[in-house]
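Re: weekly structure request thread

Next one in the queue (191 aa):
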Amino acid sequence: LIDGEVYGGQGEEYAELVEEVIRPKMEAVDLDVLFRRVRETTANRAADHRIGLNAEVAPGSALAGDAVLLERALVNLVHNALDASNPGATVRLAAMPGRRGRVQLLVADEGSGISPEARERIFDPYFTTKQYGHEIRGFGLGLTIVQKIAHLHGGSVTVDSTPGKGATFTIDLPSEPPATPGDSSSRRTPA
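Done, posted below.
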């Protein structure tokens, strides 16, 4: 990675390859199990930051999707929420029925919020609001990955934020997998 680009300018080609290789394995997702796994994966960071993590699955929340990919998306969002929060705060992870056969997965924090300028770019590859040299600064790919996973499931991801008052990321997904040509129940892997 050099100046926000994959070495040799291959970023776009790499993104296309990843999209071609990753095919969600669609099956019923137990949201209680999914949230437990996300909590287990993020527990050390939450403890290190002295931040609580609450998880709630509302009745009627049902989802067919790829649990591995959805876990990755939620872990990315929870890590960002923990990094944005002050000690003693709480991060909320929730699932609730959405409109017209959809389900919403939410990650909300009580952190510093996201400026309107940054909100316009946060899903861009290699964009980060974390300062250079900061111990938790990544490559600026986490939210891009979250967005890609949502799209692979026929969904979307949005953010609602007010600077100084935290942020809420919502992954809006169909309860049933989208119809796709061919066999969408298998995952292709590179040769």
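The chain has a mean pLDDT of 82. Residues 30 and 89 are 27 Å apart (CA to CA).
Next request, please.
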